[in-house]
Design brief:
It is a single chain. By secondary structure, the protein is α/β, with parallel strands linked by helices. The protein has two domains: about 210 residues, 3-Layer(aba) Sandwich (Rossmann fold), CATH 3.40.50.2000; about 170 residues, Rossmann fold, CATH 3.40.50. Helix content is about 40%, strand content about 15%. The strands form three sheets. It has an eight-stranded mixed sheet with strand order 4-5-2-1-7-8-9-10, with helices on both faces. α13 links the parallel β15 and β16. α9 packs parallel to α10 and α9 packs across α14.
Length: about 400
Amino acid sequence: MSALRVLSLSTLFPSPARPAFGRFVANQMRAVAERRDVELTMVNPIGLPPWPLSLSEPFRTLAETPETSELDGLTVRHARFRLIPKVGGDGNPGRIVSAVLPLARKLHAAAPFDLVDAQFFFPDGPAAHGIARALGVPLTIKARGSDIHYWGKRPRALKQMRAAAEAAAGLLAVSEALHREMIALGMPADKIAVHYTGLDHDRFQPLPRTAARALVSAVPELGVWAEGPLIVVPGALIPLKGQELALEALAQLPGVHLALAGSGPDDARLRSRAEQLGIADRVQFLGQVSHELLPQLLCAADVVVLPSEREGLANAWVEALACGTPLVIPDIGGAREVVKDASAGRIVARDPAAIAAAVRELLAEPPAREAVAANAARFSWQTNAAELVAFWRKAAGKE
C-alpha cells in the first residue's frame, strides 16, 4: 500500500514561540508521522496584526517564529497571515488561503497530495476548503469544541463552515455530543464520525499520591504543598475555563489547597478574587506547567476540577483519569462519555456550591486509583492515529 500524502492545516499547534499551544494536536500528528503509511506535511498558520499592534505581546514574540521548525521529529511550516484582532475573525479563512496556497501549490506540484485536512473547524476548515478546491483534492475537517460552540453562533463564520462541511469528503468530532451539535448547525450527519482523543500511557499513569506530592513539592518552579488535600485546576487562565468558580468553591472547603496550572490574561483578576475571598494563602498560581511535570502534578492531586463553560472532550479530563485522579466537571461536551460512573468522579452544575459538594464527597470516599485510571484505558495515541489514517484513506478513496 502506497503512503498517503496529506497536507494538514492547524492554527492550533505548538511553535517555538508557543511550545504548549495545541500540544494535544501535536501529540496526535506525531503518532501519525511515526507510521510508515502516511507522508504528512504540517502547516501551522500564525496570525499577526499590522503595525503597531504587531509590537505588543503576544504578537511580538509570535513574530519571531521561524518559517520552519522541528517538533518531536515532525517538520512544521509556520505560514503567516494578516490578523485583525477582535473584529476580523470571520475573514481569517480567506487570509489563511492567501498565505498558504502558494506554498501548497509548490509542494503539490513537486509531489501531489492525496488529501487536504483541517484539525480545527474555524478558521482552519474553510481555509482548507479553499486550498483543497484549488488543488483539486478531497477535504477532511475535525471539530474539537470551541470551534463549533463559539464560531457556530456567528452567522458569517457559520456560513463558511457549512460550505466547507458540504464540500468535505468526511468530518470528525471529538465526542458524540459534539457530533450532535454539528448536525444541529446544519452539517451533513452522514459525513460525521466520532474520533476520540489519545493518551500517552507511558507518561500518564498512576503514581502513589504521597510520592507524587513529595516529588512536585520538591520542584522549585512548582513547590506545591506537601501536606493536606489538593485540588488541581489545569488550563489557560481565561474566563472560558471558569477558574473563578473553583476559587469560590475552595472558599467552602476549609483546609483544602488549590493549584492553578496554567497562564493567561485572567491571572491578575483571579489573584484579586482569591484575596477577596480570603483564600489567597491556600491558592498557588503555578503558571504554565511543563509537559514533563504535568503527569506528576496530576498524580499529586486528590481531585482535578475543570469548570469550563464549554469543551468538546478535554484531553485534560483523560490525562487526569489516567493518573488515577477523579474529576469534577460540568455537564458539557463529551463529559458523560468520559465520566461514566462514580469511579471517574462527578458531573456537577457550574456552581461553586455544587463543585464544593462533589469535592467533599471525593475527599471523604476517594475511589481506588486503579479504578479511576481504568476509565482512560481505551484512549491511546496509537489507536487515535490508526483511526485517523483509516478515515483519511476512505476520504481520499485510497482504502
